[in-house]
Design goal:
The complex is a heterodimer of chains A (about 120) and B (about 110).
Chain A: E1 4-7, E2 10-14, E3 19-25, E4 32-37, E5 43-49, E6 55-58, E7 61-66, E8 71-76, E9 85-92, E10 103-105, E11 109-114
Parallel strand pairs in A: 2-11
Antiparallel strand pairs in A: 1-3, 3-8, 4-5, 4-9, 6-7, 7-8, 9-10, 9-11
Chain B: E1 4-7, E2 10-13, E3 19-25, E4 31-38, E5 42-51, E6 54-57, E7 64-66, E8 76-78, E9 87-94, E10 103-104, E11 108-112
Parallel strand pairs in B: 2-11
Antiparallel strand pairs in B: 1-3, 3-8, 4-5, 4-9, 5-6, 7-8, 9-10, 9-11
Classes of the chains: A mainly beta (about 120), B mainly beta (about 110).
Chain lengths: ~120, ~110
């Protein structure tokens, strides 16, 4: 059974601090997605990681993928209040017995950035 | 460009009732999916479609039916609503090519009494 595990599930940070969210998955995949969700809202795509060693950065967020370790990280640099949200990683099973459009999500990391 | 449109946004049903959640996209995307989101559970895939006339089951398909008669529309049917189906339902679409993320609708908040 495919599992996608995120940790921590809850994260309270102070503004200006750095932290990393981890996403481990249990099957072979070289496609991983990060999404952001604000309370009561839809999901917004942040990053698409398509190969081993992929690194993407947008503002204070940087995502990386290590397919050999089956691990992706989302690093937050100098957090600000506007980053408060829930962050999800999702693994794409297409090419490994699944079809495109078949994403398995982690349970999400609820980030709260406090002044 | 409307993107992915879900209707209704909110719905309350009684146990045993049936209903259809609508999802439409105007981006000519081939792939469409339905997820449910429950507190502490992330999103779980219910059904998905890789093109008109083709659908398949996801992680939690029981109690739900789908069809895909056109590229644009992907309705989700609850056959006989149960309280365990109380959830937020999201529809998503993506074009061919795994470099593209899925685009999500705003969700339907469904309560079953």
């Amino acid at each position: 059974e495919l599992k996608v595990e995120q940790n921590p599930l809850f994260l309270s940070m102070q503004e200006g601090k750095n932290y990393t969210i981890y996403c481990n998955y249990s099957t072979t995949s070289d496609r991983l997605y990060w999404y952001r969700q604000d309370p009561g809202k839809s999901l917004e795509s942040l990053f698409v990681l398509l190969s081993n060693g992929a690194v993407k950065q947008e503002g204070r967020l940087m995502a990386s993928l290590d397919t050999k370790a089956r691990l992706s990280t989302l690093h937050i640099t100098a957090a600000v209040h506007d980053l408060s949200a829930t962050y999800f990683c999702a693994v794409d099973l297409s090419g490994y017995g699944g079809s495109q459009g078949n994403l398995i999500f982690g349970k999400g990391t609820k980030l709260s950035v406090k002044p | 460009n409307a993107g992915v449109t879900q209707t209704p946004k909110f719905q309350v049903l009684k146990t045993g009732q049936s209903m259809t959640l609508q999802c439409a996209q105007d981006m000519n995307h081939e792939y469409m999916s339905w997820y449910r989101q429950d507190p502490g559970m992330g999103l779980r895939l219910i059904h998905y479609s890789v093109g008109a006339g083709i659908t398949d089951q996801g992680e939690v398909p029981n109690g739900y039916n789908v069809s895909r008669s056109t590229t644009e529309d992907f309705p989700l049917r609850l056959l006989s609503a149960a309280p365990s189906q109380t959830s937020v339902y999201f529809c998503a679409s993506s074009p061919r090519g795994w470099s593209q993320p899925q685009h999500f609708g705003d969700g339907t908040r469904l309560s079953i009494l």
